[in-house]
Write the structure tokens for this entry.
Amino acid sequence: MKTYAEKTKENTSHAVAHTLTGRTRPVMRQAAPVARPAVPHAAPVVQREILIGSTWKKPYDDTLVTGQRDLVKPYITQWPKMESIFDKGTVGKTRDAKEAYLNNDTGLESHVRAMLRKYNDKKSFPNDQELARQLVQDVKLLLLGLESIAGIDQQDGQFSKKADSADAGRTGKGKTLRIYRTMKAEHWNTYLASGDPKDILWGHGGSLGQALHYFLKSKADNLDDVLVEFEFPGKAESLIDYTQIKRGGEGKGPKDGKLTGKNEDNDVMALDEEIFSINLGKSKELISELNPKITLKDKVRR
């Protein structure tokens, strides 16, 4: 692109001018000057950073990346799903594949870097442990082939009877309540047509890890199922009675204006202990009154 104006060209046109002698001579006409082209200015570079506590950090900073990788690594190493994800047919080959992922900069570290770049200017974390727990969840989602939902806010501890632990980054009870469930696409479409939450409030709902236990089964069988999120206008600790979690059965409905639950065993994330779910059918009236934001997060068939 030129940075200077183009030279003005003279456009000569011959018009006949009559003189007193009767002779003619050419009259020179100058063309209008060519406008100077606008010189584009480079857009300002926006520095992307992540807020951790009261400090802004660059997502590509090597100290941040390696520090978070080291916090995340033990959680991923102990994750039971690693065996099936890196299965190579023999114990030795599977072990080598896992070790390569955990220790090479093209494996776990690469996933940590990718997610840190995704978080910049979009998420903030009270401390390094909370950031690590978010990364643990998202690295697992990447390994499960669920890139489309990586970045969903982690709610660790929200569906656990055990008390939260800020030191471990498990603070879900003090966060916005989010219930997840897997359902048939036709039921989701019914809800879209009616706008009535009660059309999809039956069965059980719980943590993201619980819902993914069923969603991944649906993917394996290529069922026409979807993953749905219910985001409530309040914190989990104010909407769930953690003293009312039953051992067996289908669970009960709300008690004294709060949701109750029943024990569960299936959680793909395998981080929380003493987990439970909510009986959505028995809680449909209260849930409808609370008017959660209901969002389609993923679907098996795209």
Q: What stands out?
A: The chain has nine helices and twelve strands.
